[in-house]
Amino acid sequence: MSSRAQKDYFEPEETSPRRYSPELPASSEMKLVSESASLGTESGCSAPVSDANNKKTLLKRKAGLELTAIDRHSPLFAYVRPGDRLVSINDEPVRDTIDFHFKMAEPEVDLLFELADGEQTLFEFEDVTVEELGLTLKQSGIRTCKNECIFCFVMQQPKGMRRSLYIMDEDYRYSFTHGNFVTLSNTTDADIARIIEQRLSPMYISVHATNDTLRRCMLKNELLAPILPRLKELIAGGIVIHAQVVLCPGINDGPELERTISELAALNPGIETLALAPVGLTKYRDNLPDISIYSQTLANDFINRIEKLQKGFLKDFGTRFVWPADEFYTIAKRRFPALKEYEDIAQFENGIGMCRLFAATFNRKKQFFKRSFNKLPNSIRAKKPRLVGFTGESAIDWLQEEIVPQVREMGIDLSFNSVKNEFWGGTVTISGLLSGADLLQAVLKDSVQGDIVLLPPNCLNNDDLFIDNLTLEEFCKKAKRTVVVGSYDFVETLKEALSLEVKSGSCTLNNSNTTRGNRSVALAEAGLAL
Ligand code: SF4
User: Fold this and answer.
1) C-alpha of residue 152 to centroid of ligand 1, in Å
2) Residue 514's beta-bridge partner residues?
3) Most informative mutation of 143, 149, 350 for ligand 1 (most atoms within 8 A of CB)
4) Which of 12, 134, 332, 500 could make a disulfide contact with 299, Cβ separation 3.0–4.6 Å?
5) Average pLDDT score over residue span 339-358
6) Pick the CATH number of 26-137 from 1.10.10.10, 3.40.30.10, 2.30.42.10, 2.60.40.10
7) In the prediction, which pLDDT does 437 show?
């Protein structure tokens, strides 16, 4: 299995002659201004360290952003190479890639590079775009939080996992670029000014409670600035906010939640949406505060109260504004609201409306798929493999009710199994936190029938690693069956698994190994080539 990381750039070999691309975009004009230009100021931090002779020296972080790749068509291709640093644009330091994009919007830009040998070179451009420059720059480090939230998932993990899983990131820049939630615990006045100046909108902010005393207590951070003035400052600066509350029963729900919702709703439309997610607790909570979880009854009452509030907001503001996470509905064992009730599904990544959209997409596409599938000759359809899906305990009932019967009606042999989460503990029931080991154990059970294993779409990271570091490749070898990693479009997952190409109302068989991304799905290896 090949790595997912694709090189989408041309990286010159160290020994290759450097060349200037004649394909300079017509709209841009670049002038090499001077060699050895000096940089007036140097950004970055410095820290005293001891050298080999035990003398104090200063270790300076290099200014600017490191160039990691350059497109062969870039007008700078002949002049800079990976390892050089972009130090400033128009005499202002470049702190991160957001700065780079922001400053590149100017019609005239002067780019100062520091080359690997320490020499500095200035390039002038007129009307050049980021795309035309073709530079890949290394994003600067990530900021971490100053809290110890009583529900923090990072602190509830066992030792020995991927290093990245222990990073307590809290970086407003990633909130803008990746939709990561931040509490603003480390956001300074200068950061707020920058967010507003550079229009870093929308921002995703974890509020948890608008009662600052309660918030400081839950986040275990006495130094937290009051949250509402911060939110108002951002909103006054034109920033749109998506907020979330992680709910701990008996702590920030009940009257405190009513207060939080009403104080945040008063800031709508500046605060566009509010997501309410139940706390997730693992078995690794030694020395952490006692927190309870939502029972079916509690979750039911909770949904009733929130849906009532939604109706009021819809009448007053034209939006439901606040949504319980899908997990509340699975805990309460009740049907998800209709798709239209999720409006723009702005917090999809946060588990709001994900299940309903999954079912709606399936319903929309299934008729076409069914017609096409039914056109296959019986002799071929009879040979179709048995599909067996795996998911977390919270989604199993819903999948069994809403998806599985419809797929079986088409004549496709599909079953689903729930996987108990031994890795984190039984209270963690969502599919995205299933470990490779737990999934594998479930797949290898004698009672499990099926030729092709369907995995949930969210159980692997971008490097095809499960949360316990098991690789997809190792998993496939041990599972001894064809494995398909599903997508949020279940018809696509079925087509992938059945190795079908559905085109213009007809269904043809695809005899080649199918792939999803780079995941090889070798029907032939499984002896099921059709
Ligand atoms: S903000 Fe809270 S939940 Fe997030 S990483 Fe920090 S301590 Fe953990």
Assistant:
1) 5
2) 521
3) 149
4) 332
5) 95
6) 2.30.42.10
7) 95
- Region(s) of the chain under CATH 2.30.42.10: 26-137
Instruction: Report the pLDDT value the prediction gives residue 373, as an integer from 0 to 100.
Output: 79
* 321 close to 274: Cβ distance less than 8 angstroms: yes
pLDDT at 500: 60
> How far is ligand 1, taken at its centre, from the CA of residue 326, in Å?
22
Q: Among 345-359, 458-472, 498-512, whose mean pLDDT is lowest?
A: 498-512
Convert the pLDDT of each residue in 211-260 to its tens digit: 999 999 999 999 999 999 999 999 999 999 999 999 999 999 999 999 99
Considering only CA atoms, which residue is closest to atom 5 of ligand 1? Answer: 168
Its sign, for the CA torsion 400, 405, 407, 412, is positive
Residues 6+ apart with CB under 8 A from 324: 276, 302, 303, 306, 352
Pocket of ligand 1 (CB under 6 A): 145, 147-149, 152, 154, 168, 170, 183, 219
Express each pLDDT in 135-145 by its tens digit: 999 977 889 99
> Using CA positions, which residue lies closest to atom 8 of ligand 1?
152
Q: How far is the CA of 42 from the centre of ligand 1 (A)?
A: 32
- pTM for the whole thing? 0.80
Contact 456, 393 (CB under 8 A): no
Q: If residue 516 lies in a helix (H) or strand (E), which one and from where to where?
A: strand 514-516
User: Ligand 1 centre from 149 Cα, in Å?
Assistant: 5
Cα 292 to ligand 1 centroid, rounded to whole Å: 19
